[in-house]
Design goal:
alpha/beta; 4-stranded mixed sheet; two-stranded parallel ribbon; 55% helix; disordered C terminus
Amino acid sequence: MKSKGLEKILNILYKISLNPLGALGWRCVYACNYQAGKFWLRNFTGAQSVYLKGSYAKASWRPLISDIDFALVYEGSSGEEDAKKIAWLKKLLPIVRDIERFESKDFELRLKYGSYKYLDFSNWIKVSKGSPAFQTQRFSYPLKNLWDLVHELYFYVEWIQVNLNSSFNSYRQACARRALLKIAKLVAKFNDGFNWEGYLEQNPLESLETKEELLQWMFSCLEELGGAAFLVDKFLSSKDFDWNEILSRNYYQRRFQIVDVQNFKWNGEKNQLPFDLFKLFYSLGCIDSLVVYKFLSHTDDETLNSLVLIEYYQ
């Protein structure tokens, strides 16, 4: 009941944000959350540097759909001593959701060798005084870049389906459409011949109303992938996967359903994927990236974090 009530509130608030007066109100709410969050993190944590990241830093945020995200960099520690302060901040400021903490040397390594999300570092805004912003060059290796992109892509593929499992309303539709836009942009990075803007003009997101239509749009867009299939051939052609055996495992039976892109019905209990996409994401170790992310985002135990990563990615 609590979840349904929250969904109704979110949907009402989202609809309010669609009119000019409501949009102005939400701009004020976000500005207040940002300024208060910045003040708190600059003055009540031991972070050497505070960064604003994500859609709010790029001025591409949307009311309720977007969060305000920060990153804290510490000299010589991981900032564990600030965990409780940060937890309180997120309770006080509901728009501030993601606050990552890094030790400076570890942060520099992540910028050089980390996952796809660190490619966005050039868009992060340093909002603290003191030390200059990090200046480092990412290690760019074409195959690693493709690998990282596949993992980022699957994160949104799974996120969309989890999101659609909630009450299906205007707010959830908007969240799914925003994720589909991100998927289209990622696909364009694999396939130079794919014009994501032209694709959106021919297949407008606003016309998608049902869960099946949203997923079908996503599957059709993913058919434009080019470089991802090359990754499988490059690294895994020597492996002989028994797909029948894999899909018969209890875990995949419970969590996944292989579907025909042109003819399927929404299944709210399982993640749905065409067979070729399941093979791609399974082969490259992407399955459950959202599960791992959600777990790690709710614990500050670094040893436990490491064990979870080993469990899923060994």
